[in-house]
Amino acid sequence: MGICLPRGHDGTFHFGPTITPELANYCGTGGAVCGESDGKSVASDVYGGQRYKSGAYGEGPIGVFRGKTTPPGTFPPNRFGLSDMHGNVWEYCLDKSSANYSDIPVDGSANLSGPYDSQRILRGGSWSHNPAICRSAYRDSIAPDFSGWQGRIGLRLVCTV
Prior knowledge:
By secondary structure, the chain is mainly β. 0% of the residues lie in helices and 16% in strands.
């Protein structure tokens, strides 16, 4: 089952093709990563082998850098009522990292194959990352015991209603 998008909507973000500080919490002042972790600067123009210069995405404006998380529900929800899907905190997923999508279950269930300590998928970027890293399609991974991204990783709790 697919998601129907309004005509002209490219699906980059749930609210449209670009991002603004009124729609999400991200590093909109430039660079790939902004801020500190463990009292040390993690600021860099490079992330995942890609150089990011501008704090804008697409035709959007240069943003702001709040330097911390914002309370849940600060930004408009998507059509399913879920808020803060882009930026704020990386969503730590149950899925284990895979070299490609051919290893992913086709029934929508989590990818649990591999060693117990396999890296886990992160989605949605964080308050310290460039808006391009906060796109719907961007994914990263992290070792389950890594503690270097304090205040940047969270969980999304889901329940059946």
